[in-house]
Amino acid sequence: MSRILYDLHGNDNSTCPRYLDDKHARITVMGDSASGKTSFILRCVSDTFTDLDENGFMMEDIYHTKINLLNLSQDINIRYDNNTTDNNNNTIIHPIEVQMLDTAEFEIADFSDIRNEQILQSDAFILCFDLTNIESFLNLRTYQRRIERVRGMDDNVPILVAGTKSDLLMERGVDINDIIQSLTRFEINYETHYFEISSKLNINIKNILYRTLISIKDYKLEQKEKEKASLLAKDKKLSTPSSSSLSSSTKHNTPRTPSPINNINHDSIPEEINDEGKMLSIDEDKNKQRVTTKTRDLPNNNSNSKAKDACCIIC
Ligand SMILES: Nc1nc2c(ncn2[C@@H]2O[C@H](COP(=O)(O)OP(=O)(O)OP(=O)(O)O)[C@@H](O)[C@H]2O)c(=O)[nH]1
Ligand SMILES: [Mg+2]
């Protein structure tokens, strides 16, 4: 399998902690096969819907788009409170470069490094299930557990849930009360982090995208505050009388506390999932599926810019 990871940006900010990068957002879309992931992403980035055939299956892609949060909020009639201002107190609204990773369905035993790396590099996750397919709903917890195991239980990385194909009203197979109950159990806020969407009819697509980007903003802010607090605490400790013998240069050379994001011990990721408490039945003996990867050009793009410079109607 070829590597498919989020793009690094210019000026080699790959070493920059994710919480300092407020111009880019990386969203990983997960869910069972045929749960509507690719259709959702294509609606987000190019405002199109194509009835995808089997050729669309099992491909992992990264799609790019630019989104202006203010425009997006106006489209869905939500007041956008932007607290980012320049020196003259003017509001700064820069478009956010959004990357959306379309993952292939993964097996419960798939602990490949590449998958873990994808999870670590993400700023948010959207878990898709098909409202007409109960199994895809029951499998949601698997994806959430995988994220928790790789990123740690105390990482509040945004996880949103999309119930897809909401236009297929007559075929709906998942009860709303079951959804509320399960999400509450998984500590996912049903009111703010759950959306019933239709990529076909373009229902709630902008709403879930907006909520995801706002959640990313809040999450990065929270990370920044945590980092600041930890540095202050360190400084305070160093300036106590017991440490007065330290020279000032020693203090300034104090290494930065590693970001919680970068401070994950890969060795601590267990070899297998213990699924106590999971509400789903998964065939653990299924053969691991091969994942193929490919970068797919978006419709309406310049010939050599691929998905990268796509600018959707949302901008
Ligand atoms: N009616 C309806 N059909 C949809 C919608 N979204 C996706 N579909 C159809 O559902 C099927 C699966 O959609 P995909 O977007 O390919 O699903 P996927 O999750 O990317 O599937 P894999 O790539 O196999 O993991 C396709 O036939 C889509 O046309 C929707 O909102 N409404
Ligand atoms: Mg797909």
Provide an overview of this structure:
By secondary structure, the protein is an alpha/beta fold. Helix content is 30%, strand content 13%. It contains 9 helices and 7 strands. The chain has a 7-stranded mixed sheet, sandwiched between helices. The longest helix is centred in the C-terminal third of the chain and has 34 residues, at 205-238. The protein binds guanosine-5'-triphosphate and magnesium ion. Guanosine-5'-triphosphate binds next to helix 1.
Short description:
Helix content is 30%, strand content 13%. It has 9 helices and 7 strands, in the order βαβαβαβααβααβααβ. Mean pLDDT is 76; it is low at 243-315.
Tags for this model:
315 residues; alpha/beta; Rossmann fold; 2 domains; seven-stranded mixed sheet; 9 helices; 7 strands; 30% helix; globular; binds guanosine-5'-triphosphate; binds magnesium ion
Average pLDDT works out at 76
CATH class (first level) name of the largest domain: Alpha Beta
> What's the CATH architecture of the largest domain?
3-Layer(aba) Sandwich
Written as H for each helix and E for each strand, in order along the chain, the element string is EHEHEHEHHEHHEHHE
Q: Compute the gyration radius: what is it? A: 21 Å
Which superfamily, in CATH terms, is the homologous superfamily of the largest domain?
A: P-loop containing nucleotide triphosphate hydrolases
List the ions, cofactors and other small molecules found in this model.
guanosine-5'-triphosphate, magnesium ion
User: What's the number of structural domains?
Assistant: 2
Helix content: 25-40%
- Poorly predicted regions: 243-315
- Our count of helices gives 9
